[in-house]
Amino acid sequence: MNIQLEKMKQNQECERRKRIAEEKHKEWVHKKREEERRERKRKLSKEMAEKATRELEKMQLQEKADIKYKEWLKKKRAEEAEKKKKEKEKEKEREAELQEKRTRSEKIFKEWLQNARNKPQPVLNGYGFPHGKSTGLY
């Protein structure tokens, strides 16, 4: 009976140890899963933060690029306007020169015309030809 009692106590002790081992195992598995879940959550949070940072940097770069493009475009338009202005000024100068040339030419032509009226007419019957034609045979 003592042996049976002893065996029973040993069986109970063995079962108790098994239960404790199972509980500890379950607890360990639970802790491990909890830790893994926290780790995943932390990694996800870190990835989201990095993604947000990249997006922010990308937006900032885009804004800088837009600003630089607008500045470049403004500068280019100003250069084009300046170029057109210079071309118009050159065209006006050319027109003024042409006008001055025309005026000078007209003045010279009028002077020539005035002088041409006062010049003596050439002799029509020159060189012995009456009316500018030959009148007979040699």
TrEMBL record:
Residues 1-38, 78-110 have a biased composition (Basic and acidic residues). It holds the Pfam family CCDC34. Residues 4-135 form the Coiled-coil domain. Residues 1-53, 78-138 are annotated as: Disordered. InterPro entries: CCDC34, CCDC34/181. This is CCD34 protein.
